[in-house]
Amino acid sequence: MAGVSTPELAAAVCNAGALGSLALGGSNAAAAEPLIKAVRAGTNRPFNVNFFCHETPERDTDKEAAWIANLAPQMTAFGGTPPATLDEIYTSFNDNDDMLDLILAEKPAILSFHFGLPEPKRLQALKATGALILATVTTPAEALAAAAAGIDAVIAQGHEAGGHRGVFDPSIDQNIGTFALLPLIRNTVDIPVIAAGGVMNGAGIAAALMLGADGAQLGTAFIACPETVATNAHRALLESGDTPTEVTTVVSGRPARGFTNEYMKQFRSDDERIPAFPIAYDANKSFAAAAKNAGESGYGTMWAGQAAALSQAMPAAELVEQLTQETIDEVRRLTDLVGAP
């Protein structure tokens, strides 16, 4: 939920009895420190902090210049100025010593990683703080690698999930759905498995539990909560429920699912020309800003999962309470069905 996550959301979810998370994949240490402290000020319960572990991008200045040139005509038509160069706007946790030092000092109770695993020495240092370590996986092989590395629990991310796919290698995505992925991973590793992707209500949580999950992670379901910083346009798409989502690499250079927009439509055939993550994301953000300044709102990226139409706008604490009761009711219903003659 990088981009819409806030300390207020994380604290509210924690105080309601679930595990709130703070997305710091797009932050540096200076920006992350006050956010972590703000969560801690808002709750005395454990909370999760999430980071990106993508590989350091290989810079290809010719490819990056060609991508800028590809976007330039439309940016100019919007009245914007194409960037002269592109930046690596997100630093992988494995390259970010300042962030590691911050986490070792702040000692959040739970840490989760996306796009891969922390390097062994970093993982050992983090585990020495007593933190529970989670990692997103999209295949049984990734789950096996996570368990072998010493990860405490895996988040099984199905293809339905909104936002960036957690694939370790972005060039290979098996596109396994959540409810196929869960039993595959359950049969592969002995550590806890958390379901993610397409889960929007208690029925989905109960179904995940029935398939062997030890818990469920919900992202899209919380975007419409007032505690997030989602834009009005993002909230409107969630409310309308009639805009499709798609997985694309054109936005950031890595596969990610969001509401289909004009940027995806215009450049989706250019996959082979896109620079590496997060270099391509820098270009996308410049393009979207130019379009927005010209009054064109259809180019902004709004991540969401396939079941986004089930979204409900309510305070986070109320949503946690509703999800809990729905899960209990669904488990009872399924238990009654099993026990029926």
What does this protein look like?
α1 runs parallel beside α2 (29-42) and α8 (202-210) packs across α13. The protein has two domains: 1-54 and 91-230 and 318-341, Aldolase class I (TIM Barrel), CATH 3.20.20; 58-89 and 232-310, no CATH class. It has a seven-stranded parallel sheet with strand order 1-2-3-4-5-7-8. The chain contains 13 helices and ten strands. The chain has helices at residues 7-15, 29-42, 61-77, 97-106, 120-127, 140-149, 178-186, 202-210, 220-223, 232-240, 262-267, 279-293, 316-339, and strands at residues 21-23, 48-52, 110-114, 132-137, 153-157, 163-164, 193-196, 215-217, 245-248, 256-259. By secondary structure, the chain is α/β, with parallel strands linked by helices.
In short:
With 341 residues, this protein is an alpha/beta fold. It contains 13 helices and ten strands. The strands form two sheets. It has a seven-stranded parallel sheet with strand order 1-2-3-4-5-7-8. Strands 6-10-9 form a three-stranded antiparallel sheet, with no helix packed on it.
CATH superfamily of the largest domain: Aldolase class I
Tell me, what is the CATH class of the largest domain? Answer: Alpha Beta
Overall radius of gyration:
20 Å
Mean pLDDT: 96
Oligomer: single chain
Describe the SSE topology.
Blueprint: H1 7-15, E1 21-23, H2 29-42, E2 48-52, H3 61-77, H4 97-106, E3 110-114, H5 120-127, E4 132-137, H6 140-149, E5 153-157, E6 163-164, H7 178-186, E7 193-196, H8 202-210, E8 215-217, H9 220-223, H10 232-240, E9 245-248, E10 256-259, H11 262-267, H12 279-293, H13 316-339
Parallel strand pairs: 1-2, 2-3, 3-4, 4-5, 5-7, 7-8
Antiparallel strand pairs: 6-10, 9-10
Helix pairs in contact: 1-2, 2-4, 3-12, 8-13
